[in-house]
TrEMBL record:
The keyword Membrane is assigned to this record: no
InterPro entries from the UniProt entry: ANTAR, CheY-like_superfamily, GAF, GAF-like_dom_sf, GAF_ANTAR, WH-like_DNA-bd_sf
Signal peptide annotation: none
Keyword line: Kinase, Transcription, Transcription regulation, Transferase
Domain ANTAR: 169-230
One Pfam family here: GAF_2
Source superkingdom: Bacteria
Protein name: ANTAR domain-containing protein
GO molecular function: kinase activity; RNA binding
């Protein structure tokens, strides 16, 4: 496909989801998939400096991947305090957004510790779904106060919906072709629309319009950065 044609194709949400699938093409196992999702979050989401993926296993919330030690430690603080964006995202459909953890907020103990012990100043959390069951959450952190906005959250929702599909495929043992079909399906786009409806408190039509505009803004950079993420990730394993 020529670059101009690709630019045009990626203005559609289905094409954006398909492009995100490139993150998985070189992944050998679930650990690499989870790690690639976290790496992609740092590369793709404006203002995101750290990311983690937390899955619920029985009564335990387990961090299965993190972009770095800071994200991993932030998850430890969530578990220790019993509060935070990822924990709340596990229990509610609404995306969790706190742009400045230095000010009074919904997670006072977590905020106090994370500000005192890490460079993190903003956070977001998005629930991941598997077969309509609560399963996990994508946690995003920023070192810059105010960097996370609702517009940035729109971009993150695209990645969170992709992560839901990836986790679902892994738990079912599906192959890459099945995953690519899932990423391009209306069901997965519906997941993103639902998250946008919850974030912005808008109708499904308005949410879909946001989805289209977001995919237009992200453009072909998604595919390019996804390839870069895989190359960088695999180079750290060599």
């Amino acid at each position: 496909m020529e670059m101009a044609e690709r630019d045009q194709a990626l203005t559609e949400p289905k094409a954006v989801f398909a492009a995100l699938a490139e993150i998985l093409y070189s992944a050998a196992d679930s650990a690499e998939v989870y790690s690639a999702i976290c790496s992609a979050a740092v590369e793709l989401i404006p203002g995101c400096d750290h990311a983690s993926l937390m899955l619920r296993r029985g009564n335990t919330n387990v961090t299965v991947a993190a972009s770095d030690e800071i994200a991993d430690y932030a998850d430890d603080l969530e578990r220790a305090t019993g509060e935070g964006p990822c924990i709340d995202a596990l229990d509610t459909e609404a995306p969790q957004l706190e742009s400045d953890l230095r000010t009074p907020n919904q997670w006072p103990e977590f905020a106090r510790k994370v500000v005192a012990e890490t460079p993190i100043r903003g956070s977001m959390g998005f629930r991941l779904m598997v077969d309509r069951q609560k399963f996990g959450a994508l946690n995003l952190f920023s070192d810059t106060p105010g960097a996370f906005t609702e517009t940035v959250a729109d971009h993150a929702i695209m990645l969170a919906s992709f992560a839901s599909v990836a986790v679902t495929a892994l738990t079912r043992g599906e192959d890459a072709d099945s995953l690519r079909r899932g990423l391009a399906s209306s069901r997965e786009i519906g997941q993103a629309v639902g998250l946008l409806m919850a974030l912005h408190r808008v109708s499904d039509d308005e949410a879909f319009d946001i989805l289209v505009r977001t995919s237009q803004n992200m453009n072909v950079k998604i595919a390019e950065l996804a390839r870069k993420v895989i190359v960088q990730h695999r180079s750290t394993l060599d």
